[in-house]
Design a protein that fits this description.
Elements: H1 2-18, H2 21-28, E1 45-48, E2 51-57, H3 77-99, E3 105-116, H4 124-139, E4 146-152, E5 161-169
Helix pairs in contact: 3-4
Length: about 170
């Protein structure tokens, strides 16, 4: 009986740690940057009830420079994937700043990924996978989300990708 209880409680703690977003960041070696201030008359986050709507973010590095260029012309799918991953890290920084603890995220609900690309580029989902893969790596099952990945003729400042996010909090 003790062995069965140990197995049950042992498994529960393993599941809980697998869903610990803060610990997962550490395991992934990710240090969140200071969230960027909005560049115009808007805010980074709007909360309504238990939902947070995060404004579109781009692939801005810690030094303030952006990953720029069009997919299918100046950038490869792999470079776009890395840009989308960076956007996810920037959104995580906004969430951490707003919530104080990423474990308050109950569910990543919806991702809208916009890819700056040539008109004949059709691999937008492969690019935005960088964002989605990061959310699942940090939040586990709670990071799986509904998503749109669309191509754009142009994005602000020629950034490679821009992503909007909706999350549910506890």
């Amino acid at each position: 009986m003790k062995y069965i209880l140990f197995l049950i409680f042992g498994c529960a703690s393993l599941v809980a740690s697998a869903q610990d977003a803060e610990s997962n960041l550490v395991k992934l070696g990710i240090k969140l940057p200071v969230p960027q201030k909005p560049v115009a008359n808007y805010v980074n986050v709007v909360q309504t009830g238990k939902l947070l709507y995060l404004s579109g973010k781009g692939p801005t590095r810690e030094d303030g420079t952006n990953i720029t260029g069009k997919l299918g012309k100046e950038l490869t799918i792999e470079e776009g994937y890395a840009a989308a991953k960076l956007v996810a890290i920037n959104h995580l920084a906004v969430l951490k700043d707003y919530l104080g603890d990423l474990n308050k995220v109950k569910r990543v609900v919806k991702v809208l990924g916009m890819v700056n690309c040539e008109s004949n580029f059709t691999d937008q989902p492969k690019v935005i996978n960088g964002y989605s893969d990061m959310m699942v790596a940090v939040f586990g099952e709670k990071g799986k989300h509904a998503r749109s990945a669309v191509g754009m003729n142009a994005l602000p400042s020629n950034i490679a990708v821009e992503v909007e996010l909706i999350v549910e909090i506890e």
